[in-house]
Amino acid sequence: VIDIRKLYAESDAFTYDPGFTSTASCESKITFIDGDKGILLHRGYPIDQLAEQSSFLETCYLLLHGELPSASAFEQFETTITRHTMLHEQFDRFFSGFRRDAHPMAIMTGAVGALSAFYHDSLDIQDEKQREISAHRLIAKMPTIAARAFKYSVGQPFVYPKNDLSYSENFLRMCFAVPAEDYVPNPVLTKAMDRIFILHADHEQNASTSTVRLAGSSGANPFACIAAGIACLWGPSHGGANEEALNMLKEIGTVDKIPEFIQGVKDRKYKLMGFGHRVYKNYDPRAKVMQTTCHEVLSAVGDPNDPLLQVARELERIALSDEYFVSRKLYPNIDFYSGITLSAMGFPTTMFTVLFALARTVGWIAQWKEMIEDPSQKIGRPRQLYTGSAQRDFVPISGRA
Ligand code: ACO
Question: Which of 73, 76, 139, 336 would bridge with 69, disulfide CB 3.0–4.6 Å?
């Protein structure tokens, strides 16, 4: 009989690190985070500068290529993305197979995975050109798929991409234009949308990005890997938190209910959604930009005195001064204000994580490309600490108690 404990003792040492709190899985040149200081840099550029001065497509170029584009390189990139916004017409039939009440994230997971069934000509991951075409296709088609999922869920006809609009204008038009109406996107909302996309573009080795890398490490095609990332993002501890944060604010309803709610959090009945982060033990720099964006959007199209915003502000004030939250370094994360903002822009809560997935696609694909192009890349294969039975002999069913 093999003694499993003895086997462990004799085998090569390995670390037991549940949740990967202190294990790096790769080298990367894309994104830097200093969680203690609240710093987030993409290719060296601070997130607040990108959110203020760049555009989402320019940030996509930066994440993919490592440098900000020249004017001509950007023009070429924008043209390429624009040329790939359409979906194969047969996708229509694929969409109509879903129930109308399906969660748009369920549709996204299926539809993005299905891209590999439609675009066979860019699946050779060893071919640099094909890797690039897949990246462009994903960035270009995600808004079209997301808008289609939205229109399908509300029973409205699909609006085709209009390629003389910017990336974010085009997306808003595909979501909110009703055909026959001449839709003019509100510039405040377009700017907010673009900024929200920039804020979500990449965040180094979070759960969904690690999922994309792990799926890709086996040689799976990029569309399949991104679908795996979308599935992971859907969870309420990750991308699903913005939906949960808004639901929580609605549940609290009014400022006078906050003390009772906070007590419930301290009694561990529930978590304060939109607070806390595995890496940031200081203010999430994206949350600051999101807070400003939230005010801009509410001033333009909503109610700056929205009761939900009042609840959010008061909750933030209390949490930042209450010993329970301060001692655990629980600061608002990006999801805290994004829910109120997206809701004011007209998106139902079920679309929040879809928008996150749309924006994060560039980060996922940049990380996937970096991994494939790394000569030291190996298939991801974590170890385990076995805690089951010791070896024992099989007992036929007639001999079991
Ligand atoms: N509300 C109340 N208490 C919390 C919260 C919260 N949101 N988050 C953590 N804590 C407490 C834990 O109970 C624990 O307390 P204890 O030491 O007394 O046991 C302590 O803070 C440390 O928490 P961990 O669970 O160890 O923190 P971890 O790094 O594993 O979790 C996570 C990070 C998952 C983000 C967590 O803070 C959480 O669930 N937050 C709410 C969901 C959320 O907003 N997610 C979005 C993350 S950002 C993103 O994906 C874009």
Answer: 73
pTM of the model: 0.90
Q: Which residues contact 146 (CB under 8 A, 6 or more apart)?
A: 104, 108, 171, 175, 351, 354, 355, 357, 358
Q: Which atom of ligand 1 is nearest to the CA of 328?
A: 21
Amino acid at 249: L
pLDDT of residue 2: 65
Residue whose Cα lies nearest atom 40 of ligand 1: it is 276
For the beta sheet containing 31-34, the strands, ordered from the edge strand earlier in sequence to the opposite edge, are 31-34, 39-42, 45-46
Number of neighbouring beta carbons within 10 Å of residue 281: 15
Residue 238 in contact with ligand 1 by CB distance below 6 A? yes
CB 319 within 8 A of CB 275: yes
pLDDT tens per residue, range 304-353: 778 888 898 899 898 889 999 999 989 888 888 898 899 999 999 999 99
From the CA of 245, give the closest atom in ligand 1.
44
- Distance between CA atoms of 194 and 89, rounded to whole angstroms? 27
Judged on CB neighbours under 10 Å (0-12, 13-18, 19+), 304 is middle
Residue type, 14: F
Which residues have CB under 8 Å from 12's CB, separation 6+?
none
Which residues are registered as beta bridge partners of 41? Answer: 32, 46
Q: What residues does 46 pair with on adjacent strands?
A: 41
pLDDT tens column, 129-168: 999 999 999 999 999 999 999 999 888 999 999 999 999 9
Tokens of 169: 């204008």
Q: State if residue 278 touches ligand 1 by the CB under 6 angstroms criterion.
A: yes
Q: How far apart are CA 349 and CA 84, in angstroms?
A: 28
Rounded Cα distance, 345 and 18, in Å: 39
Q: Give the chain's largest Cα–Cα span.
A: 78
Given pLDDT bands bounded at 50, 70 and 90, which one contains residue 128? very high
Of 187-196, 298-307, 352-361, the one with minimum mean pLDDT is 298-307
